Automatic annotation (TrEMBL):
Substrate binds at H112. Pfam families: Aldo_ket_red. Belongs to the aldo/keto reductase family. This is D-xylose reductase [NAD(P)H]. It comes from Aspergillus saccharolyticus JOP 1030-1.
Length: 319
């Protein structure tokens, strides 16, 4: 099974469903990527911060060497970590990440957070994480405009076909669009029925940015991290509304949550290492929910954000 694509403002096509690499263990990552490609996944959402780009690249290399897929059929996404925002750090780290993946361009390279942290040399600590060894957050003075210009230079150099942003508010997107020579192709945000961010989604889409949802299943991915409001939130898979809609369509709650996004043109990047779920998660485009059901799911919004630095004890009050 493959997935439909959406046209980006850069002219490239991006698969509407992909595979997210956060928390994919290093020892299983290559196999998981390889299996996902076999199952039909073409987009992989990676990041420096996930610490598994080398292994993800090994999975890609195996699939390519066995003739299962060609590089140009894949859509490889990576992200610029916070400690590489200083303009002179952007190209070197992008080149390192490309080397880790074993590819010579990213289909999409994203500014992970609108937060510039002090540079950490990869030979000292990689991935650098949020804090230094003594647990301190150390900021850099680089404004986003300078970082974005360095991101644009990656496009000029052919190292990234498209560039994007993540965890940006509407205000920051507005500001960035005033000076962007290369517009961001995508905006990746936390998005699930408990956090619908309707105004931000509408604004980004009006401006021609494709929105990608992360953590589509809401609290689920934050339970093991013991994020307090996730532990205290009712699981979406067991919500009566979601279960009822799933039963009506002969689908699983996971598929309903993903279709609720894709039907509104929002891309999704779930991950699983279970073959049945991998297939389920890919099969979230060729069928439709009723408009009334989409509306009812959207009404579950509670403004509940789980991926908030404050929730991890980091004083970065960006949301
Ligand atoms: P996820 O979508 O991967 O889902 C979390 C959990 O759901 C997983 O533990 C998985 O086992 C389970 N699951 C998956 N499919 C299922 C199914 N069909 N039925 C039942 N359970 C299922 O959530 P996530 O990891 O939070 O987000 C997805 C991706 O988004 C990440 O891997 C990463 O690539 C990206 N992401 C980006 C940011 C960012 O700041 N830009 C933040 C978080 C995540």
């Amino acid at each position: 099974m493959t997935t439909p694509t959406v046209k980006l403002n850069s002219g490239y096509d991006m698969p509407l469903v992909g595979f997210g690499l956060w928390k994919v263990n290093n020892d299983t990552c290559a196999d998981q990527v390889y299996e996902a490609i076999k199952q039909g996944y073409r987009l992989f959402d990676g990041a420096c911060d996930y610490g598994n780009e080398t292994e993800a690249g090994q999975g890609v290399a195996r699939a390519i060497s066995e003739g299962i897929v060609k590089r140009e059929e894949l859509f490889i996404v990576s992200k610029l970590w916070n400690s590489f925002h200083d303009p002179e750090r952007v190209e070197p780290i992008a080149r390192k990440q490309l080397a880790d993946w074993g590819v010579d361009y990213f289909d999409l390279y994203i500014v992970h957070f609108p937060i510039a942290l002090k540079y950490v040399d990869p030979s000292v600590r990689y991935p650098p994480s949020w804090t230094s060894e003594n647990g301190k957050l150390e900021f850099s003075n680089t404004p986003i405009q300078a970082t974005w210009q360095a991101m644009e230079a990656l496009v000029d150099a052919g190292l990234a076909r498209s560039i994007g942003i993540s965890n940006f508010s509407a205000q920051l997107v507005m500001d960035l669009l005033r000076y962007a020579r290369v517009r961001p192709a995508t905006l990746q945000i936390e998005h699930h029925p408990y956090l619908t961010q309707e105004r931000l989604v509408e604004y980004a889409q009006k401006e021609g940015l494709v929105v990608t949802a992360y953590s589509s299943f809401g609290p689920l991915s934050f339970l093991e991290l013991e994020v307090k409001n996730a532990v205290n939130s009712p699981p979406l898979f067991e919500h009566d509304l979601i279960k009822g809609i799933a039963e009506k369509h002969g689908r699983t709650p996971a598929q309903v949550l993903l279709r609720w996004a894709t039907q509104r043109g929002i891309a999704v990047i779930p991950k699983s290492n279970n073959p049945t779920r991998l297939q389920q998660n890919l099969d979230v485009t060729g069928w439709n929910l009723e408009e009334g059901d989409i509306q009812k799911i959207s009404e579950l919004d509670r403004g509940l954000r789980f991926n908030d630095p404050l929730g991890y004890g980091l004083y970065v009050p960006i949301f």
